[in-house]
Amino acid sequence: MTQTITVIRGDGIGPEIMDATLHVLDAMKLGLAYEEADAGLMALEKHGELLPQATLDSISRNKVALKSPLTTPVGGGFSSVNVQLRRHFDLYANVRPATSFPNTRSRFSEGVDIVTVRENTEGAYSAEGQETAPDGSWAVSVTRNTRKGSERIVRYAFDLARKAGRKKVTVVHKANILKSTSGLFLNAARDVAKEYPDIECNEMIVDNACMQLVMRPEQFDVIVTTNLFGDIISDLCAGLIGGLGLIPGANIGKDVAIFEAVHGSAPDIAGKGVANPCALLLGAAQMLEHIGMVDRATQLRAAIVDTLTAQDSLTPDLGGNGSTMDFARAIASRVAA
């Protein structure tokens, strides 16, 4: 049976890494069909809007999407299309694994295997009540956490740990200072943890968690936290293993899931054919697991590791001289073998 997925090529290097990823998936002969949809600057140029209704309809219909990076302006301009997608489909769980890979420019070429589970729809990123003084002298934004949102993301993290055979969940918070919002999250997490006596649960204040991650990342297994802290911590974890070029992200809701590379659109190297496609390929592996192709996801990850180990056609950020498609072809040759 053919599985149709929505494909969003994105901005900047997005089309290049998507071409590379689809090349590898096609080599695996998975029976996937692709329905292309537009979002971001490409959609604005073609359709006059950043997130066309046709794109939302495609994702609703197919339930699964693979997405390249979309441009988000810093400090002004239009709001994040990624945030709009998460809100529209209630993609409450953001799942970002960070795993050591061979032959990367990192402090930890082994020993790191952390999954950050980030609440994806509430907290600081809800951006409620945003207001700036006319003279720019002050600004305000409301942070709102709910009991329901906190419970469901913590439960997702414990379910993930149990399913994956992981032994520990670390709840990261700032309840010592943010006693209302972070305190609500921590109290909800404590209640949910009681339902999982087989999984160790510990608590860590976010600043200490960041220090501990840098010093002894091997002590972490699954991390669950709120939206803003999860965004920061998952990037910190990327730094442990060699950068955002090796970090995928899954955005999971009740009915819909969107899988992506979590790095930016990198307009400075767009069109040069040197972008590393690993993050999107690893996102595709998460997608394969989601649709029940667990063995094929394992096969894809193994092919990526084998290609890194062999230093075969690596892109410049990984210390090689290969192009985006050279690297993809090297991986494809291993999944097709």
Automatic annotation (TrEMBL):
One of its GO terms (molecular function) is isocitrate dehydrogenase (NAD+) activity. The keyword Oxidoreductase applies. One of its GO terms (biological process) is tricarboxylic acid cycle. PROSITE patterns: IDH_IMDH. InterPro entries: IsoCit/isopropylmalate_DH_CS, IsoPropMal-DH-like_dom. Gene3D superfamilies: Isopropylmalate Dehydrogenase. Pfam families: Iso_dh. Coiled coil: none annotated. Residues 4-331 form the Isopropylmalate dehydrogenase-like domain. Its EC number is 1.1.1.41. It comes from the Bacteria. Keywords: Oxidoreductase. Belongs to the isocitrate and isopropylmalate dehydrogenases family. This is Isocitrate dehydrogenase. The lineage of its organism: Bacteria, Pseudomonadati, Pseudomonadota, Gammaproteobacteria, Lysobacterales.
